[in-house]
Write a structure and sequence with these properties.
Number of helices: 9
Order of helices and strands: EHEEEHEHEHEHEHHEEEHEH
CATH architecture: Alpha-Beta Barrel
Strand order of the largest sheet: 5-2-1-12-9-8-7-6
Number of domains: 1
Helix content: 25-40%
Distance between the termini: 6 Å
Number of strands: 12
CATH class: Alpha Beta
Shape: globular
Structural class: alpha/beta
Length: 293
């Protein structure tokens, strides 16, 4: 497995982040916030700057963590909004997001990156759960097929992330989506911690049966990228009882997850997205190195 980390987890200064990642011995980086914007918004000139820095620090790109379909209404009248000023994201209609995807494909080609992340649409503020219903799934699948067509002439795989702020927070749900879409260039970005912290009230009951290890075992054949972070659940902390902690200090059973990945001959990236302090991110890098992937 390839060790990777999202660069802005270390620093918003790209060269500073690359220097630390190189020094820590990680051969791969994932790109999201770059030059104060989301990766799919970069100009060709900016992409060439990134490419020069990658060469300088002997790094390769595991994934473009685009925000395509995140802040995009799934249904007419849906109201979606961002949750963090530091999380840069594109907005607009499905057509707008497909144009950003085209630019992301061009960027991925220039950076020799194999994967581009897609989201299964942010859940709306003005519609009651559960989300990820059969109707939601069909609408998302239609949009992902259009994305597949957009990316079809590029040497990239679109990886759909199970995101707790989206219609499909559980890996079982994104597995069903990918099977429904049934395109060779559409696979999964699996985040076990996202699945763990999914708000149960938002999820249809039929998707609440698998624990994390069972889930990774079931969806493994479709996984092309893995995000790694950790949470500690504290019911006394409200309204958000899932607390970000450095990897290895939380509730996720990563040794068992990695064991399943190894047994299944998973060879793609495990990319850190710890969402903690810089010191905590570096601590997480040390932990991942000790996991002996």
């Amino acid at each position: 497995m390839k060790k990777s980390i999202i660069a802005d987890e270390i620093s918003s200064d790209l060269e500073e982040a690359f220097a630390v990642i190189h020094e820590m011995g990680f051969p791969y980086v994932e790109l999201h916030n770059v030059f104060g914007k989301s990766i799919e918004q970069l100009s060709e000139e900016e992409v060439h700057t990134v490419r020069a820095l990658l060469k300088k620090y002997d790094l390769k790109v595991s994934d473009l963590a685009s925000t395509v379909f995140f802040l995009c209404p799934l249904r007419e009248g849906d109201e979606v909004r961002g949750f963090s000023d530091s999380f840069h994201a594109v907005t607009g209609t499905v057509k707008d997001h497909l144009r950003w995807l085209e630019n992301a494909c061009r960027t991925a080609s220039l950076l020799e990156c194999p994967n581009i992340r897609l989201f299964p649409f942010r859940f709306p503020e003005n519609r009651k759960p559960p989300f990820g219903t059969k109707e939601d799934m069909m609408r998302i699948a239609d949009a992902i097929r259009m994305a597949s067509d957009t990316a079809s002439s590029w040497p990239v795989t679109l990886v759909v992330e199970n995101c707790p702020y989206s219609h499909l927070p559980k890996g079982q749900m994104t597995l069903e989506l990918v099977r429904m879409v049934d395109r060779n260039n559409v696979k999964l970005l699996y985040d076990p911690a996202n699945s763990y912290r999914a708000v149960k009230e938002n999820v249809p009951e039929e998707y609440l049966g698998w624990d994390t290890v069972s889930e990774v075992r079931q969806i493994l054949p479709e996984i092309r990228h893995v995000h790694v972070k950790d949470y500690h659940y504290d019911p006394a902390v409200r309204p958000k009882p899932f607390i970000h902690v450095p990897c290895g200090e939380g509730d996720l059973d990563y040794p068992s997850v990695f064991k399943v990945l190894k047994k299944g001959a998973y060879e793609d990236a495990c990319s850190l997205e710890p969402e903690v302090s810089r010191q905590g991110a570096i601590q997480s890098m040390k932990w991942l190195k000790e996991m002996n992937l």
